[in-house]
Please model this.
Amino acid sequence: MFGFINLNKPLGLTSHDCIYKIRRLLKLKKVGHGGTLDPLATGVLPIAVGKATRLLQFLPESKAYRARIRLGTATTTDDLEGEVITTKSTSHLTKEDIIKTLEQFQGEITQIPPAYSAIKKDGKKMYQLARKGIDVEVPPRIVTINQIQIWDFIWEDFLEVDLAIDCGAGTYIRAIARDLGQALGVGGTLAGLIRTKSSGMTIEKSLSFEDLAARLQQNQSIFLEPTQALAHLPTIILSSQQSNKWLQGQAVSIVPEQMLEAIEPENQTNLQNINSSNQIYYRTHNQENNQFLGISILNQEINITLAKPKIVCINC
Model:
């Protein structure tokens, strides 16, 4: 088996729990995921099966979420799974206060990840240290928030804000909830999270475990082909003879004009400018049957462009 699964992760399962269930469902050991989701989060969890696990690093990095932030409450884990640290009144807050404060969370920002996270410190995951009561300084990181939109305000037992967040890799939505509450002076925690997009996969086309089981029972495909998952990468088309050499680990010589015609129009690259400081990865296909072979890098030598295997995904 080989390909990607756009899994709609259910509430209460860890990302590793999902891998375990997929392994049992497919009776296959080689399964991996891209982008961890917390147990209290649901939504898109990209799954790679077989040799596609080697392609996870090439998936697009942007992500999107629907997040509900509860203001006036701060917790140890920055979500409702943790113990409540403080509670404060939010009666003085207005929509305008929240809208204005959210402006500082857009663009490139410095963020301190939650203490309860999977980030490793001296070989140990941060949440393992936190559970033992070990106080460890969490290093800040630079993350990119492309857009935050307010969907709704809920003024009931708690003041909660529903947000749509489009962001780059490494962003912690729990940290946004915590920091928004701190900026407003009342504390904040994440009350709910749905990932609506990850690695180019969307929630509208995701499959639940029930969907997967039903499709397998009916002998229907559950996989997103690598060509679709890696559609953002430019393409190299090799002849059958070149494909055979490439699959054996050999770099093959490509005529520049041929390469320019083979690359998808929206992703055309000036091959003459490729060098070690500007490395580009290419989806690589066999021209005869359009079979996906793997990932190439290009080396530019004097008057010669070489397509060199980076990741080979099929047998010779």
